[in-house]
Amino acid sequence: MVGDILLPVDIQDPRNSTKRSNATLGHLHQDVKAPMPGKVVRMLVKEGDDVQAGQGLAVVEAMKMQNELRALRAGRVIKVVAKDGDTVGAGDVLVSLE
Predict the structure, then answer these.
(1) For residues 84 and 44, what is the distance between their CA atoms, to the nearest angstrom?
(2) What is the CATH number of the domain that holds 44?
(3) Does some domain include residue 16?
């Protein structure tokens, strides 16, 4: 609310795939991005690897916590952008899947 005016707001989390159907997810290119600034502790895949939905792709340490970033769907790794020890910013692409 601003003054006497009520403004509608729609907040969307790009990591939330619940609004997408499984059929749609199967046809999307997926870029796995760092959720916040941090350090890449370990890359768990390499280019050409086949991955399953929910499989870990990378581990990023941020604010003294390690976060494992996972694939939303099955696919093949087409590009690994980050490597162990890299410092990344929020939204930086770490891995791309087809």
Answers:
(1) 10
(2) 2.40.50.100
(3) no
- The type of residue at 55 is Q
Mean pLDDT per 10-residue interval, the chain, length 98 residues: 79 59 58 93 95 94 92 93 94 93
Q: What pLDDT shows up at residue 27?
A: 56
Could you list the residue range(s) of the whole structural domain that residue 68 is in?
A: 33-97
Give the pTM.
0.69
Question: Is 63 a member of any domain?
Answer: yes
| Residue whose token pair is 């696919």 | 75
pLDDT at residue 33, rounded to an integer? 93
With 0-12 / 13-18 / 19 or more C-beta atoms within 10 angstroms meaning exposed / middle / buried, residue 58 is buried
Structural contact between residues 87 and 41, judged by C-beta atoms closer than 8 angstroms: no
Give the full edge-to-edge strand order of the sheet including 56-62. Answer: 65-70, 56-62, 38-43, 87-88
Closest alpha carbon to 30 in 2, 10, 58, 6: 58
CB 32 within 8 A of CB 71: yes
